[in-house]
Design brief:
Blueprint (H helix, E strand, L loop, with lengths): L14 E6 L3 H14 L9 H4 L1 E4 L6 E4 H4 L8 E7 L5 H8 L4 H5 L2 H5 L4 E2 L21 H18 L4 E6 L17 H9 L7 H11 L4 E3 L9 H10 L2 E4 L6 H14 L3 E11 L2 H6 L2 H19 L5 H4 L3 E8 L8 E9 L5 E9 L2 H21 L4 E2 L22 H15 L9 H5 L1
Parallel strand pairs: 1-4, 1-6, 4-5, 6-7, 7-8, 8-13, 9-10
Antiparallel strand pairs: 2-3, 9-11, 11-12
Helix pairs in contact: 1-4, 1-15, 7-8, 7-9, 8-10, 9-10, 11-13
């Protein structure tokens, strides 16, 4: 069955990965890719590198590597660049972050040390707990956007790049909502850039530069950034893929694993209490209530959509959902999360579930960054434009149109992702009907 004739340009030539924010997550991602392509380690956690996809029916069905099924960029063809408010090279920043061991970092020290951040676009009003001096200065925000574009053009020429993808791995900015007259249309946004309007966050300036140059943009943090009508319009106009928000890495990943399971058995829930301790720079930034508010909104949204309390009032009406993050320096990047889930079963008898996840934040996030880079590059080569909802698998708070609810159930998200890959390759979707599987 032919579903769609999609012309996908081959992943030939070099891909530039440009990252605002050379901190714990991005340096763990970059160092990891460097180690993997040297054969020193395996890309554990990455669907694009280790995942398989089932194609064909009955006796002909086979599981093949996703990267053999569809043309994806080879890790060897990636070049990295980025911006930060601190002048440290990617090697120095990774050493400070203390996620990877000194031995691991030293195995790619030369390459990593060559990545020196470009000066950042920064405004302390949006990240109160950080202050750095490696920052661009210009008369207006419009000029700052042009300076970001110049960095990108130079990088593209120097490294002889064919394509680019931008991923925001910068700190979480304060909570914002769409401001009419600034964020609502592209014309208003461009005017506001020229007037250096105070409602324009630094992340939006990078994002504007990328989308305006036709570069796909992925937002790894929960702040508003590209989720504004002006950027939906710009992405549409320039036919660029984009997406966000907030990498779904630790506690929310667990939540979107467990909640669909509990609901599938029609078990009720009266409350879900989540708390975390975290001691890295991200934890320090989130210690500011305005930045935490962005994170809180992103983390809280998932259960409501999965449990559908309006559809299942006997099971989920008035369930109580609480999320906190506590900055606790001794733990560094090794976040510990506790979840207490109050559920009830047959005849309303109560039960409890406790989850204690001793995770490593950046170890969980790095392969997500890799997959997003690979899939956003694919999306662009396949001519997919605007918000990429088939990549909701990777987001805590997937961007969506106002008339469409986002999908949070991890397994629905995975099915959607794989069926999109099949659709791109003119393969029939897998719906798990017996007839499809067995004949
Ligand atoms: N680690 C995870 O599991 C995870 C999950 C979801 C989201 N995130 C988000 O990813 C982002 C990165 O996390 P991290 O742990 O690497 O944090 P980090 O603090 O180690 O790194 C962020 C970097 O961004 C820089 N920065 C801040 N504002 C900037 C700007 N305007 N321009 C350029 N650089 C800027 C900071 O100096 C810092 O080096 C955060 O927003 C975090 O909330 C992380």
């Amino acid at each position: 069955m032919v579903l769609k004739k999609t012309e996908i340009k081959k992943a030939e030539g070099k891909l530039g990965v440009i990252i605002p924010g050379l901190g714990a997550v991005s340096t763990t991602f970059i160092a990891g890719v460097m180690m993997i392509r040297k054969g020193l380690n395996k890309p554990v956690g990455s669907l694009t590198q280790m995942g398989k996809i089932r194609v064909g029916k009955g006796d002909d069905a086979k599981d093949i590597d996703i990267k053999d099924f569809i043309s994806l960029v080879n890790l060897k063809d990636m070049e990295f660049g980025g911006w930060d408010i601190f002048e440290d090279s990617a090697y120095e920043s990774a050493m400070n972050a203390q996620v990877l061991t000194k031995d691991d970092l030293n195995s790619v020290k030369d390459e990593l040390s060559k990545i020196k951040p470009w000066k950042a676009v920064f405004n302390r009003k949006f990240v109160k707990n950080l202050d750095g001096k490696w920052v661009k200065e210009a008369p207006t925000y419009w000029d700052l956007a042009q300076m970001v574009k110049d960095d990108i053009k130079k990088f593209k020429e120097e490294k002889k790049l064919d394509r680019l993808v931008m991923v925001w791995c910068g700190s979480t900015e304060i909570y914002q909502q769409v401001v009419p007259g600034v964020h609502d249309t592209l014309a208003n946004f461009e005017k506001a850039l020229k007037e250096s309007h105070p409602s324009i966050a630094p992340s939006m300036i990078y994002c504007y530069a990328a989308l305006d140059m036709g570069i796909p943009y992925a937002n790894g943090a929960p702040n508003l950034c590209n989720d504004i009508p002006a950027f939906w319009e710009l992405a549409d106009k320039n036919r660029v893929p984009m997406g966000g928000k907030d990498f779904k890495s630790g506690q929310t990943f667990m939540k979107t694993l467990l909640a669909p399971g509990l609901k599938s058995r029609m078990l009720g829930m009266t409350g879900w209490y989540s708390t975390n301790i975290l001691g890295n720079r991200d934890g320090e930034v989130l210690d500011d209530p305005d930045s935490f508010k962005s994170k809180e909104v992103s983390k809280l949204s998932v259960l409501e959509q999965i449990l559908q309390p309006d559809e299942y009032p006997d099971l989920y009406k008035n369930f109580y959902h609480k999320v906190t993050i506590n900055y606790y320096p001794p733990r560094g990047d090794n976040k510990e999360g506790w979840d207490n889930i109050d559920i009830f079963g047959w005849l309303g008898y109560p039960m409890q579930l406790k989850v204690n996840f001793l995770c490593r934040d950046s170890i969980l996030a790095a392969p997500i960054v890799l997959d997003l880079v690979v899939f956003f590059d694919l999306a662009q080569r396949a001519g997919l434009t605007g918000n990429q909802d088939w990549l909701s698998f990777y987001w805590k708070s997937p961007m969506h149109t106002p008339d469409e609810a986002p999908e949070h159930d991890l397994f629905v998200q995975l099915m959607k992702l794989k069926n999109t890959l099949r659709w791109l390759m003119d393969e029939a979707p897998v719906t798990y009907l017996g007839s499809e599987t067995y004949n």
